[in-house]
Amino acid sequence: MPIRRIIHIDMDAFYASVEQRDNPELRGKPVAVGGIERGVVAAASYEARVFGVRSAIPSSRALRLCPALVFVRPRFDVYRSVSQQIRAIFAEYTPQIEPLSLDEAYLDVTDHLEGRTATRIAQEIRAKIREVTALTASAGVSYNKFLAKMASDQRKPDGLFVIPPEAGADFVASLPIGKFHGIGPATAARMEEHGIRNGADLRRQSQEFLTARFGKSGTHYWNIARGIDNREVRPDRIRKSIGAENTFMSDLRDLELARAELRPLADKVWAHAEKRKAAAKL
């Protein structure tokens, strides 16, 4: 197969950075986007991360970790608008764009180099994002999606890291198993039970061993342990779920009240499904 040129762009603390950009009083302060009374942290500024505040942790725990934490209500309409600006920049370089969320995407620039290297394109994209949005982005450049994703985490925030083909296998070998994209805490714990603590340990396992213990994912683990990932960047990646949620100020203990609150959530999901002409099954 020809060597691909894949870029993974990941905005730095996206929601929190937008809030700090739009409100100068928040700059330099630990900021969390989310609900302070109940709920979870949707995003945390780098000043908050110093205290251990991370996305998806309960807001109450975040406040215990950082009493000076400033909570800001999310403004998803603003985040979506900024995301559209960023994707318009991506489209200047390649049509092969696979968004993963509002703040990150894979780009395949293999056939759109025009005399430049993928690294140079990543530099240009990061500079344009800063110019247009006043925000910073980190980028990973490699020959496949897995390594590009891992590379973008190496020099955050506002960093760029390149993993060339000749360095892919060695990079993976030194990587702690808990840092592998796609291997969550539960799977990492199971792997450690089998003595698999880093990429080198993973590479020593046979494909049969991995599939016997981790099912069809075992083949993927066997490949990425060797720096192999043949997945294409897919602009038409299928969305597999549609959901809606709400966080309440107090617990709903009455069944009829809970049913009443469930109805608008169900209507919202149904509206999304109708708009996308999506079907579902049990």
TrEMBL record:
- E.C. number, please? 2.7.7.7
Site feature: Substrate discrimination: Y15
User: Can you tell me which residues form the catalytic site?
Assistant: E104
Q: Which residues are listed for Mg(2+) binding in this entry?
A: D10, D103
Q: Which InterPro entries match?
A: DNA/RNA_pol_sf, DNA_pol_Y-fam_lit_finger_sf, DNA_pol_Y-fam_little_finger, DNA_polymerase-Y, DNApol_IV, PolY_HhH_motif, Rev_trsase/Diguanyl_cyclase, UmuC
Keyword Protease in record: no
**What is a GO molecular function of this protein?**
DNA-directed DNA polymerase activity
The prosthetic group or cofactor this protein requires is: Mg(2+)
Report the residue ranges that make up the UmuC domain in this protein.
6-184
Q: Which reaction does it catalyse?
A: DNA(n) + a 2'-deoxyribonucleoside 5'-triphosphate = DNA(n+1) + diphosphate
Gene3D superfamilies recorded:
3.30.70.270, 3.40.1170.60, 5' to 3' exonuclease, C-terminal subdomain, DNA polymerase, Y-family, little finger domain
Presence of keyword Transit peptide: no
Q: Identify the keywords attached in UniProt to this record, alphabetized.
A: Cytoplasm, DNA damage, DNA repair, DNA replication, DNA-binding, DNA-directed DNA polymerase, Magnesium, Metal-binding, Mutator protein, Nucleotidyltransferase, Transferase
Subcellular location as annotated: Cytoplasm
Q: Return the PROSITE patterns for the record.
A: UMUC
Q: How is the cofactor bound?
A: Binds 2 magnesium ions per subunit.
Q: Which domain of life is it from?
A: Bacteria
**Subunit structure of this entry?**
Monomer.
Family membership: Belongs to the DNA polymerase type-Y family.
What role is this protein assigned? Poorly processive, error-prone DNA polymerase involved in untargeted mutagenesis. Copies undamaged DNA at stalled replication forks, which arise in vivo from mismatched or misaligned primer ends. These misaligned primers can be extended by PolIV. Exhibits no 3'-5' exonuclease (proofreading) activity. May be involved in translesional synthesis, in conjunction with the beta clamp from PolIII.
How is this protein named in the record?
Answer: DNA polymerase IV
